[in-house]
Write a structure and sequence with these properties.
It catalyses: a quinone + NADH + 5 H(+)(in) = a quinol + NAD(+) + 4 H(+)(out). The chain is of the alpha/beta class. Among the domains are: about 90 residues, Ubiquitin-like (UB roll) (Roll); about 160 residues, Alpha-Beta Plaits (2-Layer Sandwich), CATH 3.30.70; about 200 residues, Rossmann fold (3-Layer(aba) Sandwich), CATH 3.40.50.740. Helix content is about 25%, strand content about 15%. The strands form 8 sheets. It has a 7-stranded mixed β-sheet with strand order 14-13-26-25-24-15-16. A 5-stranded mixed β-sheet has the order 2-1-5-3-4, sandwiched between helices. A 5-stranded parallel β-sheet has the order 19-18-17-20-23. The radius of gyration is 28 Å and the shape is globular. The two termini are about 50 Å apart.
């Protein structure tokens, strides 16, 4: 440790840290543009100048290491003059367009120009103009504002893993852009907007929409993938105008995937905003009392074994427990939450969660990926894997389609089941890598369990983990990667049929679909279908009664991410029209059906959640080891030779909200061919 004195305050900091970090440890704010805590040091803006005793000139604190006994001055006359000079140079070519800049009001350049700059300019020559660059349908560029801090270049290269941004020309002619004009091929491009300290990179969908001080800000959780990204929802006049990430070092650091960030326009399109009932084969709008009356008329007196319920991938825990309680009161055990048909063993929680934890990836020293594409299924989690790969000493083996661009180097092991069986038998070259590791981990994609031999694949993956030091008392290296934010909670709540049962069978006469988009051909002819959800797709068209529910931005709700972390989202806007929160709809239906559920408030529902499973009594994720090595049901030797298929569909239109989004439709048009090409290479 080194002892450093900053403006008379003595602090002790680790050897090798920068002077800037030492100043912050002493509580001193140091202005900066190019420096970012999660990126490499560039040292090219010079805004972080400080004075060091006996140094002949100011130093760039972000790139200068501390030394024991160093004395630093952050507000001397030399420092003030230096920062004013730097700011004057930065503003030489900067356009005076703050009134029309979308960064206005939350711009680092504005704030630091006021705090550290001069109140006048001595520059009389003409300003330089730079042509705007095309970076895709999500990021808008006004490159004349660029101050060449290179944050975007370093983010694209180091975090996103797509080195498509860089500088061309030199000196006054230097420009930042893609070397060949093209859309950025990353699912994390929206983070460029967040890290840009000026208005050079802004949100194209949000352009000229509002000012930040007009917005109401609500903390919530992104459920469009299973990472559980912490977000802030910005609204005005009852409409979501933008979604931004919040910092959570254990989950998403400060990054966010593009689909969750930009698909919010789908929240106001194709919405179910009133109850509907089918009369003479046609759906017509109706009242809540008539819709619930029709449900009661059909379900009353129907034996429980002829009633089924299915929940979808974006449903909150409160609605799930309410529907399960209602089905139990009706005598039905025909429940299902695995809409994709994944063969998941829910008898133990560590069979279906990401047990290492997302932050735990940084502690691992080897990785085997089986049948997953983290880049498209969980882009933020994939960035964490890349971060660990860059740190070194982290071999990655990939079992799946050849040529997938995962944004980091990996050893392709094979395409399918034959390779997995070889890994189970210890006959593959990658077995030696896993045996040599002290904390190896395995990521199994949920998509791999959709196959007919899904149970065998789950058992085989667990066996690989058990045989290669992944299941230790203080380390659990077996991880199942889910794809959406509502897929773990129903497993925690046991929303599953009894062994050998099924929610949809030929004997089913009434089916309750809670946000579930299923193959309508699987629904028995003549079955009475209740669809409850926020977007109307094929399942809603098949329904006899439609009950309009609330999307994830429109309710206080509990979500569980892929690692089993319990998190709460908050209501940012009210549901449109006559739509209501899902658990309240089910509670109202229970009263009409004569089986009144014993809770009337959100607090009472959450108490019922904690009663159903103690994990809901706490918040967050507790890393744990594996004390029970017995594996899930399934014959590891029964894995078929077929190759693991890539994730079906487009990343940009993976669920109902993004399928309704015009922004995501444009991304699918722009990036669709690129994704197909990446999968084929």
């Amino acid at each position: 440790m080194a002892k450093v004195t900053v403006d008379g305050i003595e602090v002790e900091v680790p050897n090798g840290v920068s002077v800037l970090q030492a100043c912050e440890a002493a509580g001193k704010e140091i202005p900066r543009f190019c420096y970012h805590e999660r990126l490499s040091v560039a040292g090219n803006c010079r805004m972080c100048l400080v004075e060091v005793e006996k140094a002949p000139k100011p130093i760039a604190s972000c790139a200068y290491p501390v030394a024991d006994g160093m004395k630093v001055f952050t507000d001397s006359e030399m420092v003030r003059k230096g920062r004013r000079g730097v700011m004057e140079f930065l503003l030489i070519n900067h356009p005076l367009d703050c009134p029309i800049c979308d960064q206005g009001g939350e711009c680092d350049l504005q704030d630091q120009a006021v705090a550290y700059g001069l109140d006048k300019s001595r520059y009389l020559e003409e300003k330089r103009a730079v042509k705007d660059k095309y970076m895709g349908p999500l990021v808008k560029t006004i490159m004349t504002r660029c101050i060449q801090c290179t944050r975007c270049v370093r983010f694209a290269t180091e975090v996103a893993g797509v080195p498509e941004l860089g500088a061309t020309n030199r000196g006054e002619n230097m420009e930042i852009g893609t070397y060949v004009e093209k859309a950025l091929t990353t699912e994390l491009s929206g983070n460029l907007i967040d890290i840009c300290p000026v208005g050079a990179l802004t949100s194209r969908p949000y352009a000229f929409v509002s000012r930040p001080w007009e917005l109401r800000k609500t903390d919530s959780i992104d459920v469009l993938d299973a990472t559980g990204t912490n977000i802030r929802i910005d609204t005005r006049a009852g409409e979501v105008l933008r979604i931004l990430p919040r910092t959570n070092d254990d989950v998403n650091e400060e990054w966010m995937a593009d689909r969750g960030r930009f698909s919010f326009d789908g929240l106001k399109r194709r919405r179910l905003d009133r109850p509907w009932i089918k009369v003479d084969g046609k759906l017509r709008p109706t009242s809540w009392s008539e819709a619930l009356g029709a449900v009661a008329a059909r379900l009353k007196g129907l034996p429980g074994e002829r009633i089924g319920a299915v929940v979808g991938d974006l449903v909150d825990a409160e609605a799930i427990v309410a529907l399960k309680d209602l089905m139990g009161a009706l005598g039905s055990r025909n429940l299902e939450c695995r809409v994709d048909g994944a063969a998941i063993d829910a008898s133990r929680r560590d069979f279906y969660t990401f047990n290492t934890g997302i932050a735990g990836i940084e502690e691992a020293d080897a990785l085997l990926i089986v049948g997953a594409n983290p880049r498209l299924e969980a882009p933020v989690l994939n960035a964490r894997i890349r971060k660990r790969v860059i740190a070194g000493g982290f071999p990655v083996g990939f079992l799946g389609p050849r040529g997938l661009a995962l944004t980091y180097g990996h050893d392709w092991l094979g395409e399918g089941g034959a390779t997995l069986r070889a890994l189970v038998g210890g006959e593959h070259r990658f077995n030696e890598v896993l045996r040599a590791a002290k904390r190896p981990m395995l990521i199994l994609g949920r998509g791999a369990l959709r196959r007919p031999d899904g149970a065998a694949i789950l058992a085989a993956a667990w066996k690989v983990a058990a045989e290669h030091n992944m299941l230790q008392p203080d380390w659990h290296g077996f991880n199942l990667l889910h794809q959406f934010g509502g897929q773990v909670a129903p497993l925690d709540l046991g929303f599953l049929p009894p062994e050998g049962g099924a929610a949809i069978s030929p004997s089913i006469e009434a089916l309750w679909l809670l946000g579930a988009e299923i193959d309508t051909a699987a629904i028995p002819a003549g079955a009475f279908v209740i669809y409850q959800g926020h977007h109307g797709e094929a399942a809603a068209a098949r329904a006899d009664v439609i009950l309009p529910g609330a999307a994830y931005t429109e309710k206080d709700a509990t979500w569980v991410n892929t690692e089993g972390r319990v998190q709460h989202g908050r209501l940012a806007v009210y549901p449109p029209g006559e739509a209501r929160e899902d658990w309240k709809i089910i509670r109202a239906a229970s009263e009409v059906l004569g089986h009144r559920l014993p809770y009337d408030t959100l607090e009472a529902v959450r108490a019922r959640l904690a009663e159903a499973n103690p994990v809901f009594a706490g918040r967050g994720f507790a890393p744990h080891g594996c004390t029970e090595r017995t594996g899930p049901a399934g014959d590891a030797a029964a894995v078929a030779d077929a190759g693991f298929a890539p994730v079906p569909g487009s990343y940009w239109q993976a669920e109902a909200i993004s399928r309704a989004s015009e922004t995501m439709a444009e991304c699918a048009r722009v990036y669709g061919a690129a994704q197909i090409r990446l999968a084929a290479e």
